Amino acid sequence: MARTSGAHRTIDAIWRIESPKLIAGLARMVRDVGLAEDLAQDALVAALERWPESGIPDNPGAWLMTTAKRRAIDLLRRNKTRDRKYEEWGRAAETFTEDDLERGLDGEIGDDLLRLIFATCHPMLSREARVALTLRLLGGLATDEIARAFLVAEATVAQRIVRAKRTLSAAREAFEVPAGEALKERLAAVLEVIYLMFNEGYAATSGGQWMRPLLCQEALRLGRMLAELAPREPEAHGLVALMEIQSSRFKTRVDASGEPVLLLDQNRALWDHLLIRRGLAALERAGKLGRPLGPYALQASIAACHASARTAEETDWVRIAALYEALSRAAPSPVVELNRAVAIAMAFGPAFGLQLADELAAGPALKDYYLLPSVRGDLLAKLGRHAEARAEFERAASLTRNERERALMRRRAAECEAAAAGGADTGTAAPEQPPN
């Protein structure tokens, strides 16, 4: 039983990594997102049945793709579909070996991810449906994780995904990267998808790990490809800059036991300075295109402020607060306002930041967003209001579904309880905010 349970955990981890590539490759072949996902799920079921006994294959991605493709051909046989596409697939099945698949996963099949992003970001879909569907298929996010990212009900996201798949299936959308005006038309949605994919990897919504680095790496790879496709689009370079700079901190965001390390406590000497230089270069490219900085470039500029400070004490919080002010005008949202409250607190004192956070707490938009009570708890602790801070950290712990984040919030609550009893000031930096 323990052996089977361990195998299932391994298969789940493999599925998280391989499913976006698998669905993207199948969607290109069958021209149907819903069918591609069904075929991928069939391959997963087969893996769950066989791998615990036979062992994990050397190339699990190729095994899953081969199995899914055979299921597709079987489906056509059962339906007695003998058209040209069936013949093409049949010929391919005879010549498409597992070694070919192994090479393909890093080449053409890997590039299918970008094709699928553009297909699922079709203008016929609403913005919310585009992003939700692509995160589900490419990011490997569960419906509840997407709901948390959007701060909406899980049932709402589920309905959007189902309707979007039906719409694309009915339209028989071609799975190709568009060009010209069609590329520009879908660019904003594609950028948002890649951005949210990176966010989920940077600060995982749920699970036992604070980060999902592979998801971040995939988002960064797709972002770089997109910037090459649209070299005159400053926001494409701005998003790449943001992801490059944020990725530079990965080695320092958790300690040896996997516990979160707050931004101001990180060892900056261990930040990846090659990624920082790449990010700064991408930000410079965005600035040279002669247009006002958009939301992604503004966030990259904020990240650049942190990256350019040799120590936490040298951080230019006044500039960061000004950049958040500009970001709040370019892309107004409650999450941006919360980040602005943190920056203002660091620049001008916790009382000013708390005032802004209290205004957000009075509204409904962030009532279930765990970082709001986390920020309020930190600011209350810095003001010596430890009993109130403890209650806020406990509420934050109850709202987050990430085990590492929950442990951090509970530890902060315990520190505040001890400080309230002893009269000591234990205020520390707020948890590092995701790049929202």
Question: How does this structure look, described?
Answer:
This protein has about 425 residues and is an all-alpha fold. Among the domains are: about 185-315; about 330-420, Serine Threonine Protein Phosphatase 5, Tetratricopeptide repeat (Alpha Horseshoe), CATH 1.25.40. It is built from 20 helices and 2 strands. The protein has helices spanning about 1-30, 35-55, 60-80, 85-95, 100-105, 110-120, 125-135, 145-150, 155-170, 180-200, 215-230, 235-245, 275-285, 295-310, 315-330, 335-350, 350-360, 370-380, 385-400, 405-420; strands at about 205, 400. The longest helix is centred in the N-terminal third of the chain and has 29 residues, at about 1-30. The model is unreliable at about 95-110 and about 425-430 (pLDDT under 50). InterPro entries: DUF6596 (IPR046531), RNA_pol_sigma-70_dom (IPR014284), RNA_pol_sigma70_r2 (IPR007627), RNA_pol_sigma70_r4_t2 (IPR013249), RNA_pol_sigma_r2 (IPR013325), RNA_pol_sigma_r3/r4-like (IPR013324), WH-like_DNA-bd_sf (IPR036388). It holds the Pfam family Sigma70_r4_2. This is RNA polymerase sigma factor.
